[in-house]
Amino acid sequence: MPMYVWVAGVLAVAAGAFMVVSLLTLHAVRRERALLAAARAVAATSEAPEGSAYAGAGLLADENVAAGAMLGTILEADVAALNARLSAARTGVADLGAKAELDRVADKLREATTEAHLWRTVPDGREHLRAATGALASAGRHLARATARAVGRPEPADAPPCLADPAHGPAAAEVTWAPDGGVPRRIPVCEADYARISAGRSAAVRSIIGPGGQQPYYDTPAYGDWLLGYFTGYDPYLVARLLDGTVLGRQLPGRITGRARSAGGSSGEFGTVHFA
Predict the structure, then answer these.
(1) pTM for this structure?
(2) Domain spans of the chain, in order of start
């Protein structure tokens, strides 16, 4: 098959996949808003005395429950998006090495789905949440290798996920970024976000619905384990430094240290450095 025919086919399927992912994201946002509204409605009926130390405790508890449900929706969207990208990448691919990499993507997607189910069903299943997003990160790296092989490019070196949205896949470049009022720092971004920034636009930062409305994922503390799973194999304190000055960045060091102590390791240890 001529290369231009294969590329045209991939682009057509990719466009369809983009529409699917866009619809899934819209559904996730609407579902998150409904969940948060329900949590606030429950909290509004709390019998805690006004002005007491417990006033608002119902809101906190119910928003934590809502945050967990929202996180489940986000995880579903991550899996669905990668499945769509896998389907697009399979179209017309002939290179045996690329096919093998795509098979590994499928394996990692099944692993992520299993871990996501365990996270939902096992009490305090944060390890399974990290395992789910860790599998998705691995799937993204295999997909990047397959894409490169399919068009005759060298396989990319392992790279951390795109900080704007880890579900975008591995980073292809670094850019200078600073949170509102924060110190500029270099962060990893994917190829698509690098192109957006180079063209004078903003990166496609993952947004969620939090207590303050729609906001970047790093402006809420609920996504620590989701994010750390994506960065499996990297120093977690690096992630905290990259997000220094954000709500999530301020919360990460304590979570990392607590996780290390509960696992019997020294402060700063978090998982094993490896790439699947």
Answers:
(1) 0.73
(2) 3-262
